[in-house]
Amino acid sequence: MAAFVVRRILVNIVVFILIGIGVFLLVRAAPGDPVRMMIRPEDLQEGSEGFIQARRAELGLDDPVLVQYGRWFLDAVTGDLGSSFISREPVSGLLLERLGPTVLLMSTALGIALLIAIPLGTIAAVRRNTGVDYAAAALSLGVISVPSFFLGIVAIYLFSLQLGWLPSSGMSTPGGGGGADILEHLIMPAAILGLAAAGPLTRYVRGSLIDELSADYVRTAEAKGGSPVRVVGRHALRNSLIPLITIVMINIPQMLAGAVVLEQVFAWPGMGQLAVRAVNTQDYPVIVGFALYVAALVLICNLLADLAYAVVDPRVKVT
Amino acid sequence: MTQSEPLLEVDDLAVEFRTDEGVVKAVDGASFTVDRGEIVGVVGESGSGKSVTAMSILGLVKSGRRAGGTIRFRGRDLGALPAKELRSIRGGEIAMIFQDPMTALNPVVTIGRQIVEALRLHDKKLAKGAARDRAIELLALVGMPDAAARFRQYPHEFSGGMRQRAMIAMAIANGPSLLIADEPTTALDVTIQAQVLDLLKVAQQETQAATLLITHDLGVVAELADRVVVMYAGRVVEQGDVITVFTEPRHPYTVGLLESLPRLDRDVDELHPIPGSPPSLLAPPPGCPFHPRCPLARDRCRTERPPLRAVGAAHHSACHFAEELAAVVPTEVTR
Ligand SMILES: Nc1ncnc2c1ncn2[C@@H]1O[C@H](COP(=O)(O)OP(=O)(O)O)[C@@H](O)[C@H]1O
Ligand code: SF4
Ligand SMILES: [Mg+2]
């Protein structure tokens, strides 16, 4: 087990380095100039050209790309991902402080998605080709087809503006705070993100459970005298949920993309919001840092998934 | 309940499957009985409806439809029982052993827990510890070395033969009075088959359970069974005492099966497989379903369906001309 984790971490380090190189080169290959982006067009006067040159030199942007990369890499291995071009704050600090809200949003959404998908998919599988199944299919298709930013705007209009039940933006009320306050802010974005993920997961649970229900061991459980609830819950569902671990992992990057969008809509102070601003201003260090954080998140999730397999499926041995 | 009443009485059972190509009449009027404590062999080519018949007894045919007939167990119509009562019979008074032990056990549950589950489903008051002890006892009884350690292992840690032993332990856990074994050795290595059959015999003696032993191996029937039921195209074509059926078969299909057996006193090139193949169950031929392959077939066979009728003491055949076989069948067919 320990050897497995160590080996995976070593592989992941290589992946990290490659992602770093890729994103580093990509952002610099994109058209536009981060220094010009800092200056409002109306402030762009004759004399500002000198300032721009000075700032470019200060940021090292005039050096060959490989030199820039080498410099960045040597800092990065010590944990220093550089500073934002705009705020001049260290990138690691900026991202770390926003990692929590994003992880909170995503894990709540994932929990909601599973709480919807597992029961709904199970009912759809057991009562397949009945009204319940068709309703579940329509719902799944519905939440996949409606863009989440649209759902977000509708929800804000309904629950914040019209009904006044929930706050429309941010993560906590200024001056207020506390768990309940954060929860109130969390409900809408997490529910919408969770709903979008619940669609495909419900379909998956349904399909995989239908496969398991025709398995021989299910018939054995029935032949033993097990009740339908027991046969489905203790036997078929247990087996069908094991591969769900993979499906959830595959969906994480997509959920992250959804989170980036919803963080904008709900002004949720997460990494997504930071990243969008960084892309808009061509804030290279923040973009590269964001990419590395996302990669770390995905790689850690994958590692956890592999370990989870070893725990829930006795046939899997990690060595 | 009178002594003469059979333990299990399958009467005119019919089971259909709706498929894209049409309705498959998998079982089409099968009748037979099983008495207390006896071993009844069910033989027939693959696809003759043996498994569907066996599965119907416990109501385990999911996609199929019962198109007719009754199944009585101790005089009770199993098809008319409320779901809860049927469940108490499943794995209780009637237990099943399936063909493929590789897939018949839940891969993510330990062998021990699967046996404990069988025990506790039928004895709600049985404490966990006691169930565990009983399960280990059962594993030891079916010849599992180091039963206590095996109790904690998962199916993939067992060989095929050991898994089938575990299946048998699970089946006899609640002291059934009827054991249904659907080709219990077909999926196993030849070397293991004899061991598992021996074990089945031991289990049968231990529990005194009547056993419905489904197989396509006449040799197994000869060795283990008291009586034999021969199925063809979803029907029972002959049933009777094993010695009687083997020495005085009264159905041309049975004669064909016996002649296709490899025997020590005959050269291999003298094997006589039955020419032709079983009929499509989508559109079974009218009259006797065996007529396209039957050497004795004549006009009547093509139009009139032969009923299963007595042709001797406790010996039944579904052939219009069963009596002619008394003259035709040479003594060569004897064991
Ligand atoms: N679920 C099913 N759907 C459609 N046809 C089936 C199904 N199960 C069995 N059959 C058909 O019923 C017939 C009898 O099958 P079975 O009882 O398994 O035969 P046996 O056990 O004698 O080999 C076969 O022709 C088979 O194709
Ligand atoms: S009824 Fe006719 S076709 Fe059928 S087995 Fe008897 S002789 Fe053959
Ligand atoms: Mg079969």
From TrEMBL, chain A:
Pfam families: BPD_transp_1, BPD_transp_1_N. Its main location: membrane. It is a multi-pass membrane protein. GO terms for cellular component: plasma membrane. It comes from the Bacteria. It is found in: Cell membrane. The keyword Cell membrane applies. InterPro entries: BPD_transp_1_N, MetI-like, MetI-like_sf. Residues 99-305 form the ABC transmembrane type-1 domain. GO terms for biological process: transmembrane transport. Keywords: Cell membrane, Membrane, Transmembrane, Transmembrane helix, Transport. Gene3D superfamilies: MetI-like (1.10.3720.10). The chain crosses the membrane at residues 9-30, 103-126, 138-166, 186-205, 241-266, 286-312. Belongs to the binding-protein-dependent transport system permease family. PANTHER family: DIPEPTIDE TRANSPORT SYSTEM PERMEASE PROTEIN DPPB-RELATED. This is ABC transmembrane type-1 domain-containing protein.
Automatic annotation (TrEMBL), chain B:
SMART domains: AAA (SM00382). Residues 8-258 form the ABC transporter domain. This is Peptide ABC transporter ATP-binding protein. GO terms for cellular component: plasma membrane. One of its GO terms (biological process) is peptide transport. Belongs to the ABC transporter superfamily. One of its GO terms (molecular function) is ATP hydrolysis activity. It is a peripheral membrane protein. InterPro entries: AAA+_ATPase (IPR003593), ABC_Ni/Peptide_Import (IPR050388), ABC_transporter-like_ATP-bd (IPR003439), ABC_transporter-like_CS (IPR017871), Oligopep_ABC_C (IPR013563), P-loop_NTPase (IPR027417).
